[in-house]
Predict the structure.
Amino acid sequence: MELLEAIKGRRSIRAFKPQDIPDETVEQLIDVASYAPSAGNTQPWAFVIAKKVETKKKLASAAYNQAFVEKAPVVIVVCADENRCSIRYGRRGKTLYCVQDTAAATQNILLTAYSLGLGTCWVGAFNEEEAKKALKTPDGIRPVVMIPVGYPDKKPSQRSRRPLKQIVYHEDF
């Protein structure tokens, strides 16, 4: 699959077939995530793979009861290691760079999953403290994104995009 096809064809999937995803495929998704750019090459990410029903149930609850989170065969939680970035970049590293870096890793996962015939959804709406409790994350590890992963049961249509003339400025606003 061509990169532009993956970028333009990927959709947020919220309905999954009850079909397991091979461990090798999940490992491949994490591997490509690790190739994302990061500030100063700090690579401040950590990934929690949730497959157990009880863990996914807690994550769905943390995600304001978004049931599709629980129904996905796998949920990858992308976490930011705030300490890795703050050592080098201080407060800005802790509050911004590690979040930007995990966002880049997340996009790698979404695009690769799509290229492999999998569906995903970027879930950022969740109670962070509840997610931390569910995952038993240590201090300094911040859950940033939940990615339910599975074989799509439905494919939503393309949503509209703002025209470039509304979002591009040259030199200044």
In short: The helical segments are 3-9, 23-33, 53-62, 67-71, 82-115, 128-135, 164-167. The longest strand covers residues 141-150.
